[in-house]
Automatic annotation (TrEMBL):
Residues 528-666 form the WsaF C-terminal domain. Residues 327-469 form the WsaF N-terminal domain. Signal peptide: none annotated. It comes from Methylobacterium goesingense. Residues 710-731 are annotated as: Disordered. It holds the Pfam family WsaF_N. This is Glycosyltransferase.
């Protein structure tokens, strides 16, 4: 069809052509073209440019750039419609003057024309609205007009949607430009409303109650009603025992303001006209009052949690097979392919290592009630892992079937919660302690309460922890947790601590970071990128999203980041969307990138921001540091500024406070411009792999620590391996 445009199947090819032709970031020109529109026009375009919608239309090409920069980088991208109510192709085809202006370069696109001129001229943004409009007579009427705006907006969905998509006008302006031509009705607050209120008041008014409560004597109904309307409403009197005027006013602060300003006569006036329909209450109700201000506060959720804790602490049914082959059992809360990163990545690598070493495996699931492996085998990309899991014995607590155990079985626990689950199982096997994949001090996941107390108490069970960093192992040792707990004599006096040996009573490994080919950043690059490990979900509160977000907002509003800076949030579980930062800036929240796009993006980072209020430092700061970016991360009691900066001198450490993060970001912005120093101090990873981390020799020593096999020579306590390997490289 002539005039119809479709997005190319491979927009990335077009980006490559632009990049090769210009010799720079393909979207730098788009940023310049956008900024050249001028401050006021840029503000209006940003207000109406739906980034999430544009990202969907642009596809993967916008994953590594600001969608506005992409839109303005080349006329081919201007053909998309960056707003759900705007149809670019229809608009340009319909209005010949716009088509000519776009063709001559007078305006960049139909969308820009509509924002700048067409909206206020009363032009239609799409064919559907155009069909509904009655042709206007000359210019839109800008004369005075007064009506019930709230009721008008509630009555027409198109008004609400239009104002959401084009917040440059208000409801009154919309009515003047479009509403009249759409045949919309507006309601005056005058005579009709007064009559409706008077009719309802006459019906709701309790004559006897009002006389006894406020007048002290019985008068005629008309006299009592007259007193109420002339004096009582103003004084806060209630018209009947079912309505508390003063409560209604004081609880609903918007009503109190409306009464004080004279917009409505009383709280009861509002209740009859709209409050009842809105679901507002007439009298104080404790649960309603609390829930309105603090949603969920009255819910007895701990009763349900008590049941959940009871179920979680129960062991799985089991049966002993005296001559059965020995097996390594991995106790996992869930087996979810959508969560196969972070800590689960390490346990999956350990599972594969055990299979490669020839061990028979078993998997039992304690939380997720999904009763089969179909979804896991479909979604999981690691086909070696899928093959190993399918070969293992699989047991889910939800099935209620007993676990077949042999005397020489060993248990690897992913979450310390499940230490309770394996205790009865250890009683029937030769191994009397379990292996714990310790990747965090888990009580920090919970608020102060029973769950936290039980989680912390679980470390008292005899186990061999595999700590995933020297930082974390130091924390446990300092706090006397797990194998480092002080032994007490029977009379309560402290006894001499037993010797705790690394390589026998605990092990330390380092998480293997994502491997990327690093390409040095060059000073000639016009744009700057800040990557923020931004996890706004409650389960990830330890990543301090709020501190990072608020610090960025403040610094953007202060002008610390100029127009060159782009902000990308990584780690969110929601669909791609944007969050405003202030000024011209926003954060592009990206759920996931294809590996090729991710590698390209990581090579564009100038500053990495990754926070963690927990003993485990997270892997992300060091992955950022490996790209040559300046990295902002916080200290904790088990990792000081000196220790972090000894790993990589591109790390700018800070206290986990708003002021601390702000100060570190200010420093990072300045240091980001020194490209040579950044490259020289870039964190150079050792050539570690997961196969080396969980080699057959290391795995044998781990298993020997719980099976009472012939003891191996214990590993001598070493310095932090990353500190040792990187100190010279980042000096």
């Amino acid at each position: 069809m002539p005039g119809t445009w479709r997005r190319p199947e491979r927009m990335a090819d077009h980006v490559s052509e632009i990049a090769s032709a210009s010799g720079e970031d393909p979207f730098t020109e788009g940023r310049r073209r956008f900024v050249s529109q001028g401050p006021e026009r840029c503000r209006d375009i940003r207000a109406c440019f739906d980034r999430a919608f544009a990202l969907q239309r642009l596809g993967s090409v916008a994953k590594s750039a600001d969608p506005i920069d992409v839109y303005f980088s080349d006329p081919a991208y201007a053909r998309i419609s960056p707003n759900v109510l705007f149809d670019e192709q229809w608009y340009v085809d319909t209005y010949a003057d716009v088509r000519d202006a776009v063709a001559s370069g007078e305006v960049y696109s139909g969308f820009v024309h509509f924002i700048d001129y067409g909206l206020r001229e009363g032009r239609s943004p799409n064919a559907t609205l155009d069909i509904e409009l009655v042709p206007g007579d000359g210019e839109p009427d800008d004369g005075p007009l007064s009506f019930n705006v709230e009721l008008y907006t509630k009555s027409y969905k198109i008004v609400r949607k239009f104002l959401e998509c084009f917040p440059l006008i208000d409801a009154v302006k919309f009515y003047r430009i479009y509403g009249r031509r759409l045949g919309h009705t507006v309601w005056d607050l005058g005579g009709f409303a007064k009559k409706a209120f008077g009719d309802q008041l006459a019906y709701e008014f309790d004559h006897e109650y009002y006389c006894s409560t406020y007048l002290g004597e019985k008068v005629s109904r008309s006299a009592a009603l007259q007193h109420y309307t002339q004096f009582g409403m103003r004084e806060g009197n209630s018209p009947n025992p079912s309505f508390d005027e003063l409560w209604y006013r004081t609880f609903y602060t918007d009503i109190n303001r409306a009464v004080s300003s004279g917009k409505i006569q009383s709280g009861f006036h509002h209740y009859l006209m709209s409050g009842r329909e809105e679901g507002r209450r007439q009298l104080h109700d404790l649960k309603y009052a609390l829930e309105t201000r603090m949603a969920g506060v009255t819910e007895p959720r701990l009763v349900q949690r008590a049941h959940e804790i009871d179920q979680r602490l129960k062991s799985l049914p089991h049966r002993l097979v005296p001559r059965g082959a020995s097996r390594i059992w991995f106790c996992l809360p869930m087996l979810n392919p959508d969560m196969s990163f972070g800590g689960y990545k390490a346990v999956f690598e350990l599972i594969k290592a055990a299979a490669r070493a020839g061990h028979a495996l078993g998997i039992f699931i304690t939380e997720d009630a999904t009763d089969d492996l179909d979804y896991f085998t479909y979604r999981e990309r690691d086909r070696e892992l899928v093959s190993v899991i399918k070969e293992a014995v699989y047991v889910n607590r939800a099935r209620g079937k007993p676990i077949p155990l042999s005397p020489d079985d060993v248990f690897v626990v992913y979450s310390v919660w499940d230490a309770y689950v394996v205790q009865p199982l250890l009683k029937v096997t030769n191994a009397k302690r379990f292996i714990l994949l310790a990747q965090e001090f888990e009580p920090i996941f919970y608020e102060c309460g029973s769950t936290r107390a039980l989680t912390q108490d679980a470390y008292r069970f005899d186990h061999v922890p595999l700590y995933n960093s020297r930082f974390l192992q130091t924390y446990f040792e300092t706090h006397g947790l797990g194998p480092f707990v002080s032994k007490k004599s029977t009379d309560g006096r402290a006894a001499a601590d037993k010797e705790v040996r690394e390589g026998a009573d605990y092990f330390v490994f380092e998480h293997v970071p994502t491997r990327l080919t690093v390409e040095p950043r060059h000073e000639g690059t016009g744009s700057r990128t800040l990557a923020f490990y931004a996890r706004p979900e409650m389960h990830a509160a330890r990543n301090l999203f709020e501190l990072g977000y608020l610090a960025l907002r403040k610094l953007c509003n202060e002008g610390v980041f100029d127009h060159r800076w782009r902000f990308v949030g990584l780690g969110s579980l929601q669909d791609d969307h944007v969050l405003p930062l202030g000024g011209e800036h926003h954060i592009e929240m990206v759920q996931k990138m294809p590996q090729e796009d991710y590698a390209r993006f990581m090579n564009s980072i100038d500053i990495g921001l990754s926070l963690m209020l927990a003993p485990h430092p997270s892997v992300v700061p060091f992955e950022f540091a490996a790209t040559g970016a300046v990295v902002v991360t916080n200290t904790y009691e088990n990792r000081s500024a000196l220790e972090l900066e000894a790993i990589c001198r591109n790390i700018v450490s800070c206290a986990p406070t708003l002021a601390g993060v702000e100060a570190a970001l200010r420093t990072a912005v300045k240091r980001a411009e020194d490209f040579q120093t950044r490259e020289r101090q870039r964190l150079t990873d050792t050539d570690r792999s997961w196969k080396e981390t969980f080699s057959s020799d290391i795995l044998a020593r781990i298993l020997a620590s719980v099976t009472n096999a012939a003891p191996k020579e214990s590993v001598r306590r070493r310095e932090h391996p990353v500190l040792v390997s990187q100190r010279s490289r980042s000096a």
